[in-house]
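Collaborator request, handled under Task 6.
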Amino acid sequence: MSTSLILLLLYLAAQFAICYVVSRKITNEEDFLLAGRSLGTPLITLSLFATWFGAETCIGSSSEVFSHGLSGSRADPFGYSLCLIFSGLLIAPKIWNKQYTTLADVYASRFGPKTERFAVWILSLSSLIWAAAQLRAFGQVVSSTTNLSVDLTLFMSFVFVVGYVLYGGLLGDIITDGVQAIVIFLGLGSLFYFIFQEHPDLFSMIANQPKERLQILGPDESLLQRMDRWAIPILGSLVAQEVISRMLAAKNVRVATRSCFYAAFIYIFIGCIPVLLGLIGPQIINFELQDQEHFIVALATQYLPVVFLPIFTGALISALLATIDSILISVSGLFAHNYLIPKMQIKDEKKKVLVARLAVIGSAAIAYFLAYNSDSIYALLEMASSFGTSGILVITLAGLWLNKSSDVVALTTLFVGLVINPIYDYALKLESPFIYSIITCLAVYFLMPYALNLFAKSETKEEAFS
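Structure tokens returned to the collaborator:
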């Protein structure tokens, strides 16, 4: 057995041990899904950072910048950092004060149970597609460092993630996120340090890049296309259950709000390391890449001493684990708290925790199936980002900031958001499908009540005439 594999197994065993210890504190549904609403700023901040910092940051962003220059980093880290800031401004203060358990509770209280259940399915499926992308990337990273097959490492990853999420719940998830965040700092920091040692003129190399590689806006894009590219990471992830569960786990509203701001700062700081390395990549990598998605791993293999490679591998695995476990516990919360437990009319807290844990197993199985049957991480991420996002965004912000609306209006907005983005994107091939889908959902949400009132008045007139 290789040294890398032994160290990896020890690292994963430590994560599992943390969750096992934490499991002794779980006595009810709130403990399992929200860590007892008792956490302070440091843990929430590190957990928000680690949850957001996934495969697309370490692997996707660096390879995009390597290929296309700075414009490849618009979504990650810049767009997602702005998303965390807007979460702190628009979501955290409103949602924490209501003491909800999940995002779907907003829909139940503001619109009704039908909207709540429909939203649960949309949010859960979108998150599981995202989890499948992270799970597949996890399998590929482990495979590349252990020489085991991707299919085998994918299955091993699935078994491990299910095991430690089952035990620890959100508290275990958040504590291990803190450990994983530190490993990410060490891994990416060590890679940057050793590259800087060999290339002390690194910053002049950045300044001397061709002008087109330093443009953060994509060349030959229209204003609408640029707006769309920025809107997807900023608005498309604004109402993610993974982030909202951490806000709700905070001990007060100040912790929930400022943790988003601190996490955004850390995210932009650490996220710029893969961006800078991708920018100078063509100048410092000394062999031809077969797959540009492997750029950051190839760079680590070239520059890191052997003793530091396991730390870097641990950083990649930590980034992936922090996202996968957060998604699974979030989907479990949505499906168990807002669908299964009310449907089964469960009152006993131990049974509620059992249902939530069973929902983790079911969620992970679906994510594994999607990951196993997909050939591309990018294809999964693209599918997740457009799955009903615009409708969810509109009804969430309206539910938090505006007066109540009817179940019919919210349901219609959700349905339109689910079908309109693929139509705009694949059928009509519009240059900014996400922006247009948000505008369409806003029009449906605000104009439909007037249409329903007009219809009701015409019905009344007809009845009176007859």
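The cover message to the collaborator said: "The longest helix spans residues 150-198. DSSP finds 19 helices and no strands in the chain. Please let us know whether this matches your experimental observations."
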